[in-house]
Amino acid sequence: MQFALLEGCQIPARLPAYATATRQVLASLSVHLVEIEFNCCGYPIRDIDEEAYLHAAVRNIALAGRRKSDLLTPCQCCFGSLRMADHRMRTDAKTRGRINARLAEEGLQWSGETRIFHLLTLLDRVVGVDRIREQITRPLKGVAVAAHYGCHALRPATVTHFDHPLHPRIFERLIEATGARSVSWPKRLECCGRPLWEKNRPLSVELTKEKLRDAGTAGAAWICTACTHCQLQFDQVREPATLGHACPPAILYPHLLGLSMGLDPMVLGLDADRVFPPHLDGKPGRKK
Amino acid sequence: MHLALLFKMALLMACIGLAVRIRRWFRPVALRSTRNRGSKTAVRSLPEKRRVAAFWGRFADVVLLRRTARKSLYRWWMHGFMLAGCLYLVLFHALGEVVTVRLFPDYAPTLNPWMMLRNLAGGMVLAGVAMAVIRRRAPRLRPLTRRGDVFALGSLLVIVVSGFLLESVKIMSAPVFEEMVEDYVCPERPEEVDPLRRYWETNFDVVFPDLPPGPAPRPVERGREIHEENCAACHSRPRAAFFAYPLSKLLRPAARILGGMRVDWWLLYIHGMVCFVALGLLPFSKFFHMIATPIRLLTRRVFSPALQEGQPLRMLDLDACTRCGECSLHCSVAPVAASLPRIHVLPSEKMASLHRVLHRPRLSGSAMEALGEGNALCTFCNRCTGLCPAGIDLQAVWQATREQLAAAGFEGPLEQGREQAVAVSAREIAEAEDGGFPLWRPPDASSPILAGVKELVADCIQCQTCSNVCPVVGAANPASSYGLTPQQVLNLLRMGLTDTAAGVPLVWNCTGCYQCQEQCPRGIPVTDIFYALRNRACRSVITGGMRRAGSHSALTRFVGAPCPSERSEAEPVIHRPVSKET
Known about the structure:
heterodimer; A: about 290 residues; alpha/beta; Glutathione S-transferase Yfyf (Class Pi), Chain A, domain 2; Rossmann fold; 13 helices; 8 strands; about 10% strand; disordered C terminus; B: about 575 residues; Fumarate Reductase Iron-sulfur Protein, Chain B, domain 2; 32 helices; about 0% strand
């Protein structure tokens, strides 16, 4: 089966390294990707107009369907948005008819056959942890990593089918596959604060700081994310140096995985400006 | 001659216009991004070696239209045809007496290869225009086509077609022949020229109305002699004009009438006048991109294609836009534009709005509204910047305008919806506190979830799980961030007070994390209900319930703000914490 990578709107502009690393890691795991020019996943417009959101989201699914490929996105907000729209199309005949009629104007159709994966669900369910473990050449022994589950991939679980909503294990499984140690921390399922970044900055920063402190208290050297928005939020809130060193930096999962697979940091899109690779002795890397 | 005078007038007008418009490139346009978005690491300057490579790359962008070719080969051929054809025609045909003669002293427009090359260039322009018209008529691009585009393509079409017609009519025109004979042969008696007429009738396809038929061999010999003596230096046989010659064959039956009415004269005037109108309007029409776009491409800062921060808005960016529409065809939020046609989401439309705002500040209230709403829906994905053939940093344009528009009160539907809902809700709460009772209204039937909300909420057992797991309630700093807890909002909905519920700050500070909905023991879709409430408020804004017209002070603030260097420091971005008291 081939997968069409939907990068979303934020990755190309603000976090190109996420796409680079995802492509590299998947290539190493022999997952075949196809290129499609997708549109916005619809998440940003969902606050304003549901119909516009559904149309935009389902259009992406239909675009992938036309190429007979499954959809893969590294962004959890895109993932949640697409899964929610897919769910609505499956469960609500009226919506299905309306949206399909609009898609038909440009020769597209939602058939319900396209599966939607997040990077983590693909790695866990399609590739499998065992195959990932085989590829690890430089296990990150002893590095304490806190898994940050993004909200939109995890909930509502009946829609996203990501993992158990109250006791998920998928991210820890994948982190431990790299040889790192996963840290248990109370706020691992909480919101990163990003949705309020534009609407209410102080509240947004407050939510993030609480999470960062919590992870630091739990002894994490790194917070591992698998979502564009979460990573951007952690990076931006950490930027002012006022937080002290109790707050661990965030790293994207494909970077963690790529480094443990022995891939060159430059190939993964990591550079001195972005994130320092985690030191194998378990101390947190520092931002320059 | 009148045409020479007209040409001088058009040239003068073009020069003045160019001076006016180019001067605006150096005047600061008072829009500047004040907020730092995105990680700064996306921007890196290039090392010296790559800087040189980038310079040659930009040379290729300008001369070989490389950026155009990257996205669409069709457009590359189309634009290449028009560019090469027009360049040749302007330099070697229109300015033939100035340019071509200097380079090739034997030049005459009726000699080869000039005749053939002119037809080739004209044919290329025609092919380019035809391709452009076909492209513009495609369903997605058609609505984006404006008067300026029609004018540009139309004037090119008229110029080329009238040129071909003029040439074909002149080929067979007897009056033109007689004029030339007057000027160059100077015969003592008119009959002397008869052999030449005969010769030109057979070899140059001139149609003489009253030449006696049946050529004798002797006069033809004589005709060739006169021709070689007087005409051959400037005239090749017209067959080389491979567009105009077949056209003249086609028009041959009407040759006498055309000659008699001096249609060539009329065509010359049409041809010339349209050229001069296009020249005079060059600084004010789409043709201006011929100057602005290459300069924009050459002066692009050598940066990685990723996001650039805090760039001031430059007039050059707006002038360099060719309105090709590629940005809109590939826009990430284009499907949203299809759903909400009232909002100008598409990049090319926003450029047009911005153009209007900056050029005609007095008329631009609706343009600013369109721009503000469109900008608010932009996801800043940078795709348009990456593919703009003119090399405009569109993302920087959106960023520079967004903050200023928000400050002027054009924040987009979400913010306006919030303000409106909060105001209505606050009024209802105040009335209730004064001893009145908020009005019960029938369920809002605009969305399925709100229509059935009373039944959904009827299941609520007041366990407060939603309030306990809500991260916004948990953060509680400032406490006014939420106003009421989720469970209290549900209670308002249970009472049928949708308007009151829709303005509760919690609804607008909801992160959409779905904790409440996931953990609700009764399975109430709390988050989805909040989404529906926000949709409801925004819908009333979009459908024109209370669209704010830009006040005059807001306009001057936008247009006439001090330039960035004059400002003591960037205006701080004010985030009003949403409070119950607002």
